[in-house]
Known about the structure:
Elements: H1 14-33, E1 55-60, H2 67-82, H3 88-98, E2 115-119, E3 125-131, E4 141-147, E5 153-160, E6 171-175, E7 178-181, H4 189-196, E8 210-213
Antiparallel strand pairs: 1-5, 1-8, 2-3, 3-6, 4-5, 6-7
Amino acid sequence: MGELPSLKIQAATPQDLVMELEQGLETIKQYMSTKVFRPAIQSPSSFDIIHPQVCKVWVINKTYDVWNDALNEFGRVYQDFRTKRHPDYKTVKDAMVSHKPMPQSVQRSAFGLPIPFFYRSLGNENATLKSKDYDRRASPLWVRIIKLANGKYTIALVWFQSQFLPSDERLELHQHKRTISSGQLPNNDLLETFITQSDPVKKKFIEGQGVGCDGGAL
C-alpha cells in the first residue's frame, strides 16, 4: 500500500494537473478500499460524493498569471451564459405577466436556488424562483482556482451529479405576494452544455479547450 498523495500541487500545466488528479484519486481509492466498506452507488446519489458514476472533474486548458484574472474570466463567462437565457427568460417573463403556471421547467435552476429575476421591460418588476419546501439548493457545480507549481493559475470544475431535489418537489415563482407554479424540476442538460462547451447560443465557454479527468476514481 503506497502513501496517500501529497496535498501540494506538483503539476506545472493543466494537462499535468489532470494526470496528477487522476493518480491521486486512484491512490485514495486503493487506500480506502482496504479501510472501509464500499456500498453500491446509485445515480443520482442522495448526497455529493466523489465517484465516477456521480461526479465529474474538468481542468480548463488555460493558465493565468494571477488568481483574480482566472476568477474574473470565469465569472464573466458564467454570467454571460445565464443572462437572458432562452427559453427561461421568456418562460418566467410570460408567467409574471399572465400569472399562470409555467408550462415548462426553468433550466437555469439546475445551477442552484433561489434565483432572482428582474425585468426592466416590465417596469423593473422582479420575482424569485424558489423550491416549495426548501430554503435553498446549493449549486452542484464547484469552481476551484488552483495554483500550479510554476506559480500560474488554472480553473478546475467539479460537478456533483447528486439528486437535485426530491422527485415530488416543485419550484415556485414568488412575485410579491403571488405564487406561481413552475411545474417540473430541471434536468442536467444546461449544466452539461455549460461545461462541455457545446452551447449553440453563446458559442464558447472559456478561451482554450478543457481537458477532462474522470472525477472520481473512488
